[in-house]
Amino acid sequence: MYIERMVEAGQQLLDALSAKEYAAIQEAANLFSKTVDDAWTAYTRGEIDTKVRGQSLPKTMYHFATIELSAMTSDPQQWQNAARQVRLFLNMVRVVVE
């Protein structure tokens, strides 16, 4: 459930970034950060099983989605980089949980 929501929110963000609509990007970025934050909370409670040991990779992913991404999506010059990083994030989700 949490993973599917993250993937869906990530895809919505990618769609908004490709449309290059500032308001839609901000809304999608906020939704994505919220879904990642919810997943992190569930992960720390042991509700999400991962294939990686320790918290290093999940914590790095959480930091990106809740802190770094906000700066990227606020700057139109960074939108292309943000899209690339979100794609990488979604690929890493598949590695971490599958």
List low-confidence stretches. none
Count of structural domains:
1
Strand percentage lies at: under 5%
**Biggest sheet, open or closed, and with what strands and sense?**
none
The beta-strand count equals: 0
Order of helices and strands: HHHH
Structure overview:
The chain has 98 residues and is mostly helical. It has a single domain (2-97), classed as Four Helix Bundle (Hemerythrin (Met), subunit A) (Up-down Bundle), CATH 1.20.120. Helices cover 81% and strands 0% of the residues. The protein has four helices and no strands. The chain has helices spanning 2-19, 22-44, 56-74, 79-97. Helix 1 (2-19) runs antiparallel to helix 4, helix 2 runs antiparallel to helix 3 (56-74) and helix 3 (56-74) runs antiparallel to helix 4 (79-97). The protein is elongated. The two termini are 14 Å apart. The relative contact order is 0.18. The model has no long low-confidence stretch (mean pLDDT 91).
